[in-house]
Amino acid sequence: MILSCNFSPLPPKVNYSSFPRTSFSPPKSLVFSSAGSNHSPRFSKILPFLINRKKGHLQICRSSFNTQSPQDPPLVSSSSEENDLLADGGNGGDGGGEERDWTTSFLLFAFWAGLMYYVFFLAPDQTPVTDVYFLKKLLNLKGDDGFEMNPVLVAEWYIMGLWPLVYSMLLLPTARSSKSKIPVWPFVTLSFFGGAYALIPYFVLWKPPAPPVEESELRRWPLNFLESKLTAAITMAAGVAIMVYAFSSGGDLWKEFYQYFKGSKFIHIMTIDFGLLSTFAPFWVYNDMTARKWDGKGSWLLPLSLIPFLGPALYLLLRPSLSAAPIALAPSSDEA
């Protein structure tokens, strides 16, 4: 191997015999050997360089295989940069992986904690008996007693039953965490009962990117159901019917619903849940879109995803299937 060094002009010859002799020898880990020898992993990346400290600067000798173009920055760094290089084990300062920024997770957790405090201690609770009655009527646990439920409340109740299905289709499998052992399915299951209050903790713990999906997994439950265009079409149709039912109600019924919202803890919490699910949905639409490499052709759907429920449901209907999308698909175990 040929070494070409960018040394400055040699200083005048110095009589080194006047200096006291020492028994110091250069460390063996930096001594060049034949190409076939084995080196420790820490110094394997800096073996092509000969490091010579002089007056606080780092002077580097490069091998003939590592040529530098005129556009590259000069291969001269300060002594602190050399220490960083050695401290990082020659990994260029990245430490062998990207360090995760926990700021967003911390802020999201703080938001969730404050939200739960509000739900349990600060939300209005003026009609607890009425809340139990409404819940029994919506669950069909109470017979026909002549009382007609507010259609806006009924529509919100049924749309809240569809939101967890939409999030299941958005989070599985493209929002799974490859850098964490925490699965997404328990949070999705709990969202059928707790809505966004059960999903936000997973958003805090989420560590992208998603792991590769096996082709055989697409043919099994639940992905065969969640990836089905029939499922997306039925969800979209049901959502449109519910929205039409709600907005066809008169203004007086909306005012009545607003009065319920101000006094009923059950309706108050459910309405906030609807708003949270609508707020987080565009982000997960974008995440699923980029995972399927469809963020170019499908970018026009991002503004539409801001429409509560209908926007994300439309995206689920039009998005490409995982089998057709050019994402990382792992070979099935029977084919390996």
Can you describe this structure?
The protein has helices at 79-87, 103-122, 128-138, 151-171, 185-194, 196-205, 223-226, 229-247, 251-263, 265-291, 301-304, 310-318, and strands at 3-5, 50-54, 57-63, 213-214, 329-330. By secondary structure, the protein is mostly helical. It folds into 2 domains: 44-94, no CATH class; 103-330, no CATH class. The protein has a 3-stranded antiparallel sheet, with no helix packed on it. Strands 4-5 form a two-stranded parallel sheet. Helix 2 packs antiparallel against helix 6. Residues 1-11, 16-99 and 332-336 have low confidence and may be disordered.
Entry summary:
The protein has helices at residues 79-87, 103-122, 128-138, 151-171, 185-194, 196-205, 223-226, 229-247, 251-263, 265-291, 301-304, 310-318, and strands spanning 3-5, 50-54, 57-63, 213-214, 329-330. With 336 residues, it is mainly alpha-helical.
**How many domains make up the 3D coordinates?**
2
What overall geometry do the principal axes of the alpha carbons give?
globular
Uncertain spans? 1-11, 16-99, 332-336
How much of the sequence lies in strands comes to 5-15%
| Main sheet strand line-up | 1-3-2
Mean pLDDT over the full residue set: 77
Counted beta strands: 5
- The succession of helices and strands, N to C, reads EEEHHHHHHEHHHHHHE
| Helix share, percent | 40-55%
What radius of gyration results from the CA coordinates? 31 Å
The largest sheet is:
3 strands, antiparallel
Count helical runs. 12
N/C terminus separation = 42 Å
Keywords: Membrane, Transmembrane, Transmembrane helix
Transmembrane segments: 106-123, 152-172, 184-204, 230-254, 266-286, 298-318
Region (Disordered): 66-97
Biased composition (Polar residues): 66-80
